[in-house]
Design goal:
single chain; 228 residues; alpha+beta; eight-stranded mixed beta sheet; globular
Length: 228
């Protein structure tokens, strides 16, 4: 009888664990879907979209839907998203990332914002492969220009490794993210891929794109087409 009770308890624990993992996977699928939708919605308005010149030269793309920023004297920023990088075989399977940061000052209020970060050169790509870096510290960043046919200034070519944009209440514009830290979301990576897959291996194309991630990756490929 005692053995039966132990067996039943173990069964309940296993079932609970499976349900928790399934719920977690659903959340990650939702993050991928939301990121795909952000790209679609931003690029659907040509006069407010990312310029063609930047689309063609992008090395990596990071999308963080509904980035949270709230403040009451001490500001706090936090968001989770996904990223993919260009490889010789197309865009990589996604990695799950988080963006954290803080600010100080007399500020009251809060907002939810969609963010897009684009690594514009090989230096930006190398920072992405490091798992964690500080924007504006380890990697130079600049507010991205808006408009598919907009002529971007020369500063981003010479100095910026990342261009950044935000979308809040329908407005899409360049954003200063200096001081925030982009890092891998290890728990999400393990839950989505079922193991501790190397972050760098995913971004360099060493891991096949799972079926659930293909819509996001294919949407990125559709817009970020390399120049011929």
């Amino acid at each position: 009888m005692k053995r039966l009770a132990v067996t039943m308890c173990l069964g309940v624990l296993a079932l609970t664990s499976m349900q928790a993992k399934a719920e977690s996977k659903d959340k990650l699928d939702e993050r991928l879907t939301n990121s795909k939708n952000v790209l679609d919605e931003v690029m659907a308005t040509p006069d407010k979209a990312i310029p063609n010149q930047i689309l063609s030269q992008a090395q990596c793309v990071v999308v963080i839907p509904a980035y949270k920023k709230g403040a009451f004297v001490v500001g706090a920023q936090y968001g989770k998203g996904v990223a993919t990088c260009r490889t010789s075989r197309g865009w990589s399977a996604p990695v799950f990332v988080q963006l954290t940061g803080g600010s100080f000052g007399f500020q009251i209020g809060g907002q939810s914002t969609d963010l897009i970060l684009v690594a514009t050169n090989k230096n930006g790509l190398q920072h992405m492969l490091q798992n964690k870096f500080k924007i504006g510290g380890d990697a130079a960043a600049a507010a991205g220009p808006v408009g598919r046919n907009a002529q971007a200034g020369t500063d981003w070519k010479l100095n910026a490794e990342f261009l950044t944009w935000s979308r809040s209440k329908g407005l899409f514009a360049g954003l200063d993210l200096d001081g925030t830290v982009l890092s891998d979301d290890q728990d999400a990576m393990r839950d989505f891929y079922g193991a501790n897959v190397p972050y760098k291996s995913v971004l360099t194309g060493g891991i096949p794109t799972p079926a659930d991630a293909r819509p996001f990756v294919s949407t990125t490929a559709k817009y970020f087409v390399a120049s011929k």
